[in-house]
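Entry for the shared binder. Reason: the reviewer on the internal report wants the predicted structure included alongside the sequence.
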Amino acid sequence: MQLDEIKSLYLKHKEPSLFHRYITNNHIEPLLNNFNEFLNIEIIGKSVLNAPIYGLNLGNGEKRILMWSQMHGNESTTTKALFDLFNTLSSKHEALNILDNCSLYVIPILNPDGAQAYTRVNGNEIDLNRDAQDLSQPESKVLRKAFETFKPHYCFNLHGQRTIFSAGSFNKPATVSFLAPAQDKACTVTANRKVAMEVIGAMNNALQEVIPNQVGVYDDAFNLNCVGDTFQSENVPTILFEAGHFKNDYARDITREFIYTSYLIALNYISNNTIIGDNFNSYFKIPENEKLFYDVIIRNAKIENSLLDIGFLFQEKLVDGHIEFVPKIEKIEKLDAFFGHREIDANGTSVLSFDGQKLKVDYENVFVMINNEKISLFSK
């Protein structure tokens, strides 16, 4: 598919009722009713707090792809893009033959309790992505049963990542990241990893045209407690998708389009090709993510008798049903090896708290005083 065609489809089919970062069952349930004639919807289990977990089955093709989102409840960008994808596929666009060749089984919100509370963990404060072996949580058992029943040929593990990640060692945020997880401690490049790598390579080739040098991959250190590593170890090509940061896009509504693009490229590639992993080498050209970003860096601040930098990270807080961002000081030191999504030069003047006090690590406020001027660290 051509990128201009994907762009057109996205603009036409973007789901307007889903936006910003707070996405829960309450947001998606009204939309599910719109797809009754297009896909099969079922409740496949309940969460710790008895919320329904939905499974969606669509397509009639022989190639089976299992997709799940919001395993971590506060990682919602991939869920928004799923509903953009559903809108697109239900339109039966003549250029799309994905559902003729593929069958998709999608769990749009695996962790509805975490989504409701806007937390990474579930209702028992367990990280579901470290529960693949113990299967101690009801949500983990739901996913495992879907895997065993559907018997996928591919798994898409859909997540979101923090703003701290750079694509390699350069001043470029990792807007989208991928991983073909390891399936053994030696991180052997196995046959099914090569298949996953080939699909990732196809997505990267497309994304480089729209977000050049803003695609990364994660370290593939093996952890069998992680779901992706477990499914990969059972010889099912598995791909981790991570929705990251784009300039000023703290709502993740721009990144959403790049995730949607990734979905269509991957599904179209799988639909139209017999993938055996021969074209896996391009995966290794994608830079590995590094933690080189702060949300804001104030450079050259006068701190006592020294010129230092002040690094802030935004804390995401659920307030009255929406997400607010509050800057918090993480470091006060020279940060020459780091980048800020926004940088402010204090030019050797004093930087104080909004009430005129000395700044300290863990200070939280939207405002600081620089040379007696009130400066906002975040603009909504």
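Summary line for the report: Residues 255-272 form the longest helix (18 residues).
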